[in-house]
Design a protein that fits this description.
Number of helices: 5
Largest sheet: 7 strands, parallel
Number of domains: 1
Order of helices and strands: EHHEEEHEHEHEEE
CATH class: Alpha Beta
Structural class: alpha/beta
Helix content: 10-25%
CATH topology: Rossmann fold
Radius of gyration: 17 Å
Strand content: 15-25%
Strand order of the largest sheet: 4-5-3-6-7-8-9
Shape: globular
CATH superfamily: Peptidase S8/S53 domain
Length: 228
């Protein structure tokens, strides 16, 4: 099988599922090529469920290069929360990588995404160097609420709490939106915001020995997943 990376976004398969599924069996070769697969699925059998209707996932990040051939049959709606327009450009590549983990279809060139059938909402809140302003993130979250998304993913964070960000997160959760955020690459220091908020799913990183990545945050951690 084409190798694919597994992250906490496997939670998608638990949302809005039917009883119908396809069974993927992992070989020893698959596990050797990508140790993360059999760390998450030690039985070497994976049930991939089909959602009743497409799950709406918002990726707040550096943008997504949606013109790439792997996304040609994908449903992607873009919004630049920095410039307040409907097109994005990802010069950093981080947001595009996250999109691939989520929805890249089976192909020979790259990874297999968790759920190619999702409706992806590409929300640019980070600049070309990976930095961002909290007000742009708040703007992006509020836009996602208006789009009635199911999940908001933030693979970044801030060291300091911000009342406006906290209020935006709470507003999204009140609308039954699942919010997932990176614990942060803080070299073992405290978890970043918004992952540190109690109602946000915080995810950290482990290596093949199931040990915490030395770069990863400590503190409020809800889940860990292969990430080194």
């Amino acid at each position: 099988m084409t190798k694919f990376f597994v992250t906490f976004l496997v939670l998608f398969s638990l949302t809005g599922c039917t009883s119908k599924y396809s069974l993927v069996t992992l070989s020893n070769g698959d596990c050797k090529t990508n140790w993360g697969l059999c760390t998450v699925f030690p039985s070497k059998e994976v049930k991939l469920y089909s959602p009743k209707s497409p799950i709406k996932v918002a990726v707040l990040d550096s943008g997504i290069n949606s013109s790439m051939s792997i996304f040609e049959n994908s449903s992607i709606t873009s919004y630049d929360a920095i410039k307040n327009n409907s097109t994005t450009k990802d010069s950093l590549g981080h947001g595009t990588a996250i999109a691939g983990v989520i929805m890249a279809p089976l192909n020979k060139q790259t990874v297999q995404g968790i759920s190619p059938q999702v409706r992806l909402f590409d929300v640019k809140v980070l600049n070309d160097k990976g930095g961002g302003e909290v007000n742009d993130v708040i703007n992006g979250i509020n836009w996602c609420i208006k789009q009635d998304v199911d999940i908001i993913n933030l693979s970044f964070g801030f060291q300091k709490d911000d009342k406006g960000l906290r209020n935006a997160i709470n507003k999204a959760i009140e609308k039954d939106i699942i919010v997932i955020a990176s614990a942060g690459n803080t070299l073992g220091l405290s978890t970043d915001y918004p992952a540190k908020y109690k109602n946000v799913i915080s995810v950290s990183s482990i290596d093949k020995n199931l040990k915490r990545d030395p770069f990863a945050a400590k503190g409020k951690i809800d889940f860990v997943a292969p990430g080194v």
